[in-house]
Amino acid sequence: MSSLPTPSAEALAHSEKLVALIRAEIAANGGWIPFVRYMELALYAPGLGYYTAGARKLGREGDFTTAPEMTPLYGQTLARQAAEVLESGLDQIMEIGAGSGALAASLLAELERRQRLPRDYFILEVSPDLRERERDLLAQKVPHLLERVTWLNRLPTLYQGLIVANEVLDAMPVHMVRAGATGVEEAGVTLGDAGFAWDWRPAGAELRAAAAALRLPPGYRTEIQLVACAFVRTLAQAMARGVILLVDYGFPAHEYYHAERGEGTLMCHYRHRAHADPFFLPGLQDITSHIDFSALARAGSEAGLELLGYTGQAQFLINCGITDIMLRISPEDTMAYVPQAAAAQQLLSPTEMGELFKVIALGKGYAAPLAGFASGDRRASL
């Protein structure tokens, strides 16, 4: 990892505190914990995990940049879909994990422009640091709309409205499995001479059943997203009526578990550099996996949700009128137009975010078609 930037002494000391916590848990559990638990601690250990400590995660100063941070064009376009859902008689939006608050700010501003503001905009955020950053950004960008925003610690019950989650599921802990000589094995973490090390053990019943359904070839290693699927089921239980819009990078199952992806999709992000070592500087880097959208759709269906649409991000944004929104700025105004055009290229290009990112809509008690899936709906591929 010599090619990665060296952290400050303060950051390194922070990581060492988390390492000590994880080492203690491994020792308390007989020298082994499942990788899903390691990932949970690395990302969410109170006060120490990547998402629960205070370091900046998003934007140029952080480790990665999401679409809403890149350009308000993303939220402005998504607002058309939000407005359509609100027009059905629903008057609430809940965003899961709002990051810097950039998506909330652009969504609210555009909905105000369309005269379709929700009565309430809820943000479910587990990170105290990110809550503060979100509040500061909203106070800067849309101060007159801040009174509509409420931060939540847990999901409400009998929720009626739109739920939006942009790049949330990819950061949920995953189980790592491989097709071993004696059957399905689960990856765990143990203590080696140089620090944390992989260690494989026979998988438990639930994980073994999920992997068996995939018919993995010998030696194949991949992730299974039991946590993300459980979260979808939890959203279903919390919802009385409405639409859930999930945006993330990933594939349907037949692409996710392709022979060429035999090492899985686990990826780490540190200072805008991607690598595959989840044991590097715990607490200072993001750890993610791509999403199996077929598994999400199945989990939603089993929990009483209807699959309302599935497509690539580019198709979704085009369906929602991104080109019309771009035309608000004259191409002759090069200082304003050129950055907007470059951002749109990133959002739409199949070699950048346009095809890797997908949008899936799940609903309960919602019969109207959704504009974002009017053309190019790929539900049949799931």
Q: Which helices and strands appear, and what pairs or packs with what?
A:
Elements: H1 9-28, E1 33-34, H2 35-44, H3 67-70, H4 72-86, E2 92-96, H5 102-113, E3 120-124, H6 128-141, E4 149-152, E5 159-166, E6 175-180, E7 183-192, E8 195-202, H7 205-212, E9 221-224, H8 226-238, E10 239-251, H9 253-256, E11 267-270, E12 273-275, E13 286-288, E14 291-292, H10 293-302, E15 306-312, H11 313-319, H12 322-326, H13 334-348, E16 357-364
Parallel strand pairs: 2-3, 2-5, 3-4, 5-10, 10-14
Antiparallel strand pairs: 1-7, 6-7, 6-9, 7-8, 10-16, 11-12, 11-13, 15-16
Helix pairs in contact: 4-5, 5-6, 8-10
How would you describe the overall organization of this protein?
It is a single chain. By secondary structure, the protein is α/β, with parallel strands linked by helices. The protein contains 13 helices and 16 strands. Strands 2, 3, 4, 5, 10, 14, 15 and 16 form an eight-stranded mixed sheet that branches. Strands 1, 6, 7, 8 and 9 form a five-stranded antiparallel sheet that branches.
